[in-house]
């Protein structure tokens, strides 16, 4: 019975380690997502860098 308890303790520790790693990945992805959203917002609100000649040609 003691072996079973040791096995479960080791299994619990490994599961806890995996959960901690996954939580760290989630936190990293959330931070990256926030950075990407900010960059996308900046890119979509900045004025077009198209040359005036090209813009005029496209509008004709």
TrEMBL record:
Where do the coiled-coil regions begin and end?
Answer: 12-46
Q: What is this protein called?
A: Ni2+-binding GTPase
Q: Which UniProt keywords apply?
A: Coiled coil
